[in-house]
């Protein structure tokens, strides 16, 4: 594991006086370019509809994605993976269907709460819901029971094509170990820094297709099979935020573990402070 001596001077959330913050922003853009060239499109979020993404965002709280997939299969087989379906299903049956995702009683109530909110405020229409300004929607989502910043931003970015960056534990860990920011930094500060740093990438040439060659290990980040939602057209900046989140998840899953990081072979190893 690489460890770097940290300066005691703090500049905003950037804790390192030897490197200007603008250079840190440039470095983040390099992370994106290197990871995308190495692994290609990650096809996040894997879903056929916007509502499936919303349900997945709720269900993935405190559980592995494989468990979420089992719950989604159950909902799909029961024909209730829609606003209408969740509205009409009995709470007890919904709980049984999503049981594989864990905390199923809480999550079932939260899904019901979301649908009731959309029914009341937007006449049950996701089109009307997602047509609202990003800040307004984000505030409304955060006011719903069981919706924190990561869940709200996942819904906005992946289901609604709103330009917000999703910050998760992988992002915090990777950027802290690379001396970009402190792992304990407030979510909103990280989100704003990431969004600001990545904006120029939207003006670059269109992202290339998946590279023909892969790493010898076969690792391709956190890639999912292409789906209707992952391949849908979206604004350039939304696509950048989409890919960057998925790419960082790939680094976290395969290399930057919580207790046992495996830096050798990681595409971002060259960016570690002091790496030669």
From TrEMBL:
GO molecular function list: 4 iron, 4 sulfur cluster binding; class I DNA-(apurinic or apyrimidinic site) endonuclease activity; DNA binding; DNA N-glycosylase activity; metal ion binding
Tagged with keyword Isomerase: no
Transmembrane segment boundaries: none
EC number: 4.2.99.18
GO biological process: base-excision repair
Keyword Ribosomal protein: no
Family: Belongs to the Nth/MutY family.
Protein name according to UniProt: Endonuclease III
Lineage: Bacteria, Pseudomonadati, Acidobacteriota, Terriglobia, Terriglobales
């Amino acid at each position: 594991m690489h460890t770097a001596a940290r300066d005691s001077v703090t500049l905003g959330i950037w804790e390192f006086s030897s490197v200007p913050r603008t250079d840190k922003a440039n470095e983040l853009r390099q992370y994106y370019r290197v990871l995308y060239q190495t692994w290609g499109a990650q096809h996040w979020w894997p879903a056929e509809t916007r509502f499936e993404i919303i349900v997945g965002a709720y269900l993935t709280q405190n559980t592995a994605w494989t468990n979420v997939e089992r719950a989604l299969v159950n909902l799909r087989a029961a024909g209730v993976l829609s606003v209408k379906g969740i509205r009409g299903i009995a709470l007890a049956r919904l709980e049984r269907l999503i049981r594989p995702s864990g905390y199923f009683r809480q999550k079932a109530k939260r899904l019901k709460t979301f649908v009731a909110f959309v029914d009341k405020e937007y006449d049950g229409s996701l089109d009307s819901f997602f047509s609202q300004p990003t800040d307004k929607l984000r505030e409304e989502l955060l006011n719903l029971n069981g919706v924190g910043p990561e869940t709200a931003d996942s819904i906005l970015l992946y289901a609604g094509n709103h330009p917000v960056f999703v910050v998760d534990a992988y992002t915090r860990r990777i950027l802290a170990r690379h001396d970009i920011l402190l792992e304990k930094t407030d979510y909103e500060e990280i989100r704003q820094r990431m969004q600001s740093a990545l904006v120029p990438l939207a003006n670059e040439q269109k992202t290339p297709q998946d590279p023909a060659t892969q790493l010898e290990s076969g690792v391709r980040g956190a890639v999912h099979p292409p789906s209707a939602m992952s391949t849908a057209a979206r604004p350039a900046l939304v696509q950048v935020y989409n890919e960057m989140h998925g790419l960082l998840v790939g680094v976290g899953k395969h290399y930057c573990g919580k207790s046992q990081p495996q830096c050798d072979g990681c595409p971002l190893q060259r960016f570690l402070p002091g790496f030669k």
